[in-house]
Structure formats: C-alpha cells, structure tokens
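User: tokens in, sequence out, please.
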C-alpha cells in the first residue's frame, strides 16, 4: 500500500511527450519499409515507458496477466495504472484491449478514445477502432480511421489492405 502512496505523490510523466518520438515518426512516415518494423518497436517501447517504476511494474504485470487469460486481474491492475498515471496513453490502450477481449465494447471504446486524446499518433489504437467501426457497419468512418492510422504508420500492410477494400466498397455506394 505504501507503494501506491509514493506513486500518487509523484505522477508519471506523459510517455507521448518523449522528444525521440517526433524523429521516429518522421522516419516511419517517410522512411524505408525495411526499418519500419524497428521504428514501430522503438515507438511502442517509448510509449510503454511511463517514467514511473511503479506504474511500469503494474503495467507489465497487467500485460502478463492478460496474456495468461487473467483478465479480471489485468483490469484491476490497469485501473491502478490509469489512476496513478492519467496521462499514460498506453495504460488506456492496454485496458481498452483487455476490455475488448472481455466483450466490454463500450469500455474499450472509451479507453481507446482516451488513449487517442493523449496520443493522437497511436496507430495501433486507430486500427483497432477502425475494425470496431467496421464491425458496426460504419464503413466510411472505419475507412477514415484506417487512413489516419496510415498517416502515422504507412507501412502497416493490414491497415493498408483493409483501407483499399473499404475504398472499393465505398466507391460503389451512393453518398
């Protein structure tokens, strides 16, 4: 319990403000496809660092719990993560993913929206939201969300393919 009190006294810095991100995103957007995977991994590593040892530990344990199917534990830990570090976008992104896995679509969308509010370049969240929009029959909104994801990570083959398919479908519809 003392651990939580110390973390609350020292809020986590917003990971998305790391000055290395701008250069990585620029390289990802205009750079070589061969380096895209490496740059994407570096971006995600930076996003996953809350600048708080306590929050990072809780986040890692929540991720591990989710990977092992302990979704209730993962959600409980992520509630602490987002409470202790309300500007840590990746905490909301992971909680949204876990909520989606547990069929809490509304909670997932809420968390994904918060993650995008904190880090608009979060291309992974945009791709997941595009799929959610698509599953809800919102083809145009899904297409736009895929396009926004591709603005930040044009090397995402899945998002590019999905956007192409949607573009063909939308072109055949009346406006």
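Assistant: Sequence out:
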């Amino acid at each position: 319990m003392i651990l939580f009190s110390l973390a609350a006294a020292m809020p986590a810095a917003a990971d998305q403000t790391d000055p290395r991100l701008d250069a990585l995103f620029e390289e990802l957007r205009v750079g070589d496809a061969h380096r895209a995977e490496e740059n994407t991994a570096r971006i995600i590593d930076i996003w996953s660092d809350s600048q708080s040892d306590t929050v990072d530990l809780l986040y890692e344990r929540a991720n591990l719990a989710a990977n092992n199917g302990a979704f209730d534990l993962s959600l409980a830990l992520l509630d602490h993560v987002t409470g202790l570090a309300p500007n840590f976008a990746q905490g909301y992104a992971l909680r949204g993913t876990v909520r989606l896995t547990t069929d809490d679509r509304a909670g997932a969308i809420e968390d994904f929206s918060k993650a995008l509010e904190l880090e608009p370049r979060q291309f992974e969240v945009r791709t997941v939201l595009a799929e959610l929009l698509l599953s809800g029959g919102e083809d145009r909104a899904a297409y736009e969300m895929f396009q926004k994801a591709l603005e930040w990570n044009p090397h995402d083959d899945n998002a590019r393919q999905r956007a192409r398919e949607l573009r063909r479908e939308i072109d055949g519809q009346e406006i």
